[in-house]
Every structure is written in structure tokens, then in C-alpha cells.
Specification:
The strands form six sheets. This protein has a three-stranded mixed beta sheet with strand order 1-2-3, covered by helices on one side. It has a three-stranded mixed beta sheet with strand order 6-7-8, with helices on one face. It has 17 helices and 15 strands. It is α/β, with parallel strands linked by helices.
Length: 567
């Protein structure tokens, strides 16, 4: 009896509770103003994905008091209070959904936020939260020593945001999501009603009705209890569905991670899947240093289908990327762990080897002129693992350079049998004067105005000189200034070679013309076209020929494409 009396509230406290619940359940102007304001605040928090703003709505929401009013009316048999509380709650719920709908209509909602999505698919965990929130709120109501703000926080957590989200979803035409949000509210409402009834009864708020017949208790709480059980079964099934989906997602992500772990600088950015009929569709957004081949996608797809036990279609959307660090060989970027760390030293052996090789080759090419490293791949073999390096440059990488790099790799990787092969893409540089040979091209901004003037004058003289020649044609000039000499590489074509004696004569004439020391290198190459009226360089002939049909070329090409497309 002593413990029982300790739980019983005093008559004075009961009158205070009853008066607070009665006044809070009055569906008056102030009540609906707070409903509208709290819903708008919650809606803005949902739209902007701000948890702090949603919490702000909890502090002013009045919908929890009518629930307590219904609870108190049911356990005491007060029909007047029950009718008033039901009217306030129903109108408040309708007003809350309507305000959410209005906000969703006028607000520029681009896409659903995580705060919105989390309230469209309720499960058993949400019901447990509502049960605990109902107990916290009802206990705070009967215990005068607990802050009066606690009930608002505890109950509004489970009431206002789902209603606001319901209205937002309806405004966007997402009716399934809106129904899910309303179901979350309804489950929370039933949980709070039943838990508060038990709490109020334990604390003696129903002491004048201790001899209530069981049939009356069933009449008062039977519908709520049955509805609660039905909702519990539904949400439990939803929880199992989520658990199964999470299991499938975990298998998909694990398979992708394992498959991609052997590929350098490759990771999963985002992954989504959908089960349609009896088939699993997976879209994986990844970043990688190279394009994933269809064969590799097929291999992962087959393993995935075997793991999940259903037909699978995998699509990998790859974004090219590079991870560059000062070391570049010993770690990889991963998703944040619970400590917030994003670097892992656990690497696949092939990735370690590839990154170490890439760092050595990249350091070398960075110190060289005219060569850029594009990619590094490793083909593992028992006897001779081979490193393939793809480079881009305006000059050819020499065999001696490859030998030096191979020896550096063998020492650094402690693999004396490793081999290096280089795949090179070479490109040319052009200016208005023609092709630039990088070995000869001067850095013009380092030349003086006088030197620039001499080179320009020499170029004009050389072009005029070879225009007067009949058997030798000047195709390109590269000029530079080295060791007090103006040096020129002349690229010549014709029916004969330009002799060394002719070079000496031309050097002397050009020196007199420019008043400077001149050195000429004549590079004679076969490459002329014979026509009925003489000889001409290939580039000149093709340029003249194309100019005659340039206007009709585009039209002809379009007709050809159309003919091929529609045989």
C-alpha cells in the first residue's frame, strides 16, 4: 500500500492536471493558431532538411493535449471532455494537413529531402518511439517536478512532422508517401493514447472508477487496442521488408566493393536498386581511373545474381578520377567511418603495386619536358609482372628513359623481374607559321625585340628564296637563337635533296641579309606530287583541290550518311 500511495497523485494535483487538459483541449482560436504555426515551422524544416527547425515546431505544437483529454475522458467516463477533445484533435489534424498542403503548393520544392522521406515509410521502430514518447509525455503530466516543456517535445516529435509531411506529399502528388505519413501519425496517436491511459491509471487519475466493469473497459479501449494491434502487424511487416531490402543492398554493395577493390582509384559514389517483377535492377555510380569493361560488368552482374537469388541487370556509371598525394602509394579514400576518418591503408596487392609504380613514373615524367603520364596498369604474372604506362607527349620517350624507369621500379618495388612497357600517344604543335618542332622552337617572350625582328626577317627571306626554286619546296621553318647564332630548321620536299654546298651558300646570303650569325639545317624529304604542268608539295596540291569542292563537300557527306543509314 505504501508503494501504491506513493504513485497516487494528490487531489490538488489531479485538479490542476484536469484543468490543464480541459483548457488545452478546447478547440478555440488560440489552439488553431498554434496548430497552423507549428505545422508551417515543421513543414519548412522538412523542406529545407533542417532537424533543428523541425524541433522548433515541437515546442509550440498543441496537438498532444487533446490526446491527453481523450485519455482522461475515457478512463473517467467523461463524455463532455471526450467530445471536446475529439473535436479539437480531428479539426487540428485536418488543419495541420491542410497547412502542409498549402506550404507544398507555394514552396519551390525541387526534390524530396531525407527528412521528408524518413516519414513516408513507417515501421515498427517508429511505433516503439511513439510508445516511449507517450510514456514520457504522460508521466511528465502527472509529475509536477518535470519541466512542462517535456510533453510538447516528446509528443510533438511523433505528431506534427508526419501531418505536415502528409500535406506536403499530397501537394506534390505523392499520394503513397502522404498515406504513409498519415499512417505514421495514426500509429503514433494510438500508441500515445493507450500508453497514456495506462500511465494515468497507474497514477490514480481513474481512482473514482476502480470498480469499472470489464465490458465497459472493452467498450472504451477495445477499438483503439484492436487498431493498435493491426497497425503493429502492418509496421512489423514493413520492418521485415526494410530488413530484407537492407540485406539485399548490403550484398550488392559488398560485391561491388570487392570487385572494385582490385582497381586503383576506384570507389562507389552512389548506388540504387529496384526490384521489378522477378528481376533486380542496379545502378552504381562510381569513380575510377579507367573505364570498366563490359566483360567486367558481366562478371560482377553474374556474381550478384547468384548472391541475391534472382535475375539481375547491372549498370555502372563511371566518372574518371585520380587521387594524388605526396606519397600516392599506401592508402585509399573510403567513406567516413564512425570516427569521421576517410583514409584506409587496407589495399588490394594489385592496387598497392599499381599505385607504387604510378608514383615513381609520375615523379619522373613530371620532371621531364614534353611527357605527361596518363594511366598505369599492371598485369600480374608469376615470372614477369608487367607494368603498362600510357603517356602523352610532344616528343618520343626514348629506350634509355624506359630502361632507367624500369630499373627504378625494380629497386623501389623490390621486384627484380618486373618489366615496364610504355604506350605513347604523340601529338604535334602548330602555329600560324606551320608545325612547331619543340626542339627548335624559341620561347619568344624570352627573346629581345631585335632577335624577334631578325627571325621574322630571315623567315621572309627564306620563303622568298624557295619560291624561286623549281625542284625544291619549303614546307616549314623552325627558328631559334642558340650560342649567338640564329638557327633555322628547314623542312624541304622535292625531286632532289638540298646539298650541303647549297646550305653554305644560303647561310652566307642570309647572314648578309640579317647582319647576324646564321646556322641552317636543311631537312630534305621526298613528298612531292607530279602534275602535268610540273611538281608541287602534297599539302599545296590537296589544299587547292579541296578548295574547289569545299562548298559541296558538306552536302555530299550528308547525302552519304543518309544513304548508309537508310539503305
Amino acid at each position: 500500500m505504501k508503494n501504491k500511495s506513493r504513485l497516487q497523485v494528490s487531489p490538488e494535483r489531479f485538479r490542476v492536471i484536469y484543468q490543464e487538459v480541459k483548457e488545452g483541449s478546447e478547440p478555440g482560436f488560440r489552439f488553431y493558431i498554434l496548430v497552423a504555426v507549428s505545422t508551417l515551422i515543421a513543414g519548412l524544416g522538412l523542406v529545407t532538411n533542417s532537424t533543428a527547425v523541425v524541433i522548433g515546431a515541437m515546442l509550440v505544437a498543441p496537438l498532444m493535449t487533446p490526446i491527453f483529454g481523450m485519455t482522461l475522458a475515457l478512463i473517467r467516463g467523461n463524455t463532455e471532455l471526450l467530445g471536446r477533445s475529439i473535436r479539437a484533435e480531428v479539426v487540428g489534424v485536418v488543419a495541420s494537413v491542410f497547412m502542409g498542403f498549402i506550404l507544398g503548393t507555394i514552396a519551390p520544392i525541387v526534390e524530396a529531402t531525407p527528412e521528408m522521406l524518413s516519414r513516408t515509410e513507417p515501421n515498427l521502430f517508429d511505433l516503439l518511439v511513439a510508445v516511449l514518447a507517450g510514456f514520457a509525455g504522460s508521466y511528465a503530466m502527472v509529475d509536477e517536478k518535470i519541466s512542462p516543456a517535456l510533453p510538447g517535445v516528446a509528443i510533438a516529435t511523433a505528431i506534427v512532422p508526419p501531418l505536415a509531411n502528409c500535406g506536403l506529399c499530397f501537394s506534390l502528388g505523392a499520394y503513397v508517401g502522404g498515406i504513409g505519413s498519415f499512417l505514421l501519425f495514426f500509429a503514433n496517436f494510438l500508441s500515445i493514447l493507450l500508453v497514456a491511459s495506462i500511465t494515468f491509471s497507474v497514477f490514480g487519475l481513474a481512482r473514482h472508477f476502480e470498480t469499472i466493469a470489464k465490458i465497459d473497459i472493452i467498450k472504451r479501449f477495445g477499438l483503439a487496442a484492436v487498431s493498435f494491434l493491426i497497425v503493429t502487424v502492418f509496421l512489423t511487416n514493413a520492418l521485415f521488408k526494410i530488413a530484407r531490402e537492407n540485406q539485399i543492398e548490403s550484398k550488392i554493395r559488398t560485391l561491388l566493393s570487392e570487385a572494385l577493390s582490385a582497381m586503383p582509384v576506384t570507389g562507389i559514389e552512389k548506388m540504387m536498386y529496384e526490384i521489378y517483377g522477378d528481376k533486380l535492377y542496379v545502378l552504381a555510380n562510381i569513380h575510377s581511373s579507367s573505364i570498366i569493361s563490359p566483360r567486367e560488368v558481366k562478371r560482377i552482374e553474374s556474381r550478384m545474381a547468384e548472391s541475391v537469388g534472382m535475375s539481375t541487370e547491372l549498370i555502372i556509371r563511371s566518372v574518371m578520377s585520380r587521387d594524388i598525394s605526396s606519397a600516392g602509394t599506401t592508402n585509399k579514400i573510403v567513406a567516413n567511418d564512425l570516427d569521421g576518418f576517410f583514409v584506409s591503408e587496407k589495399l588490394h596487392p594489385k592496387v598497392k603495386l599499381t599505385r607504387a609504380a604510378e608514383q615513381i613514373i609520375r615523379e619522373y615524367t613530371a620532371s621531364q619536358f614534353g611527357i605527361v603520364l596518363l594511366d598505369v596498369d599492371v598485369i600480374e604474372a608469376d615470372e614477369h609482372p608487367t607494368i603498362f604506362a600510357s603517356v602523352l607527349g610532344i616528343r618520343k620517350i626514348s629506350g634509355n628513359e624506359i630502361s632507367i624507369l624500369e630499373e627504378s621500379l625494380q629497386r623501389a618495388l623490390e621486384k627484380p623481374n618486373i618489366r615496364l612497357m610504355v604506350r605513347q600517344v604523340q601529338f604535334d604543335l602548330y602555329s600560324k607559321n606551320g608545325m612547331i618542332r619543340y626542339q627548335w622552337a624559341p620561347l619568344e617572350y624570352l627573346l629581345s625585340d631585335e632577335q624577334k625582328g631578325v627571325i621574322t626577317k630571315a623567315r621572309a627571306y627564306l620563303e622568298g628564296h624557295f619560291k624561286r626554286q623549281e625542284e625544291v619546296f619549303l614546307e616549314n621553318i623552325n627558328g631559334s637563337f642558340v650560342d649567338d647564332h640564329y638557327c633555322f630548321l628547314l623542312e624541304l620536299t622535292g625531286k632532289r635533296f638540298f646539298s650541303d654546298e647549297e646550305v653554305k651558300v644560303l647561310e652566307q646570303k642570309l647572314s648578309e641579309e640579317t647582319a647576324g650569325k646564321v646556322k641552317i639545317y636543311a631537312w630534305s624529304r621526298p613528298g612531292i606530287v607530279a602534275v602535268s604542268d610540273g611538281y608541287a608539295p602534297y599539302d599545296e596540291v590537296t589544299s587547292e583541290f579541296f578548295s574547289k569542292r569545299a562548298e559541296t563537300y558538306k552536302e555530299e557527306a550528308e547525302k552519304l550518311i543518309e544513304k548508309i543509314s537508310n539503305p
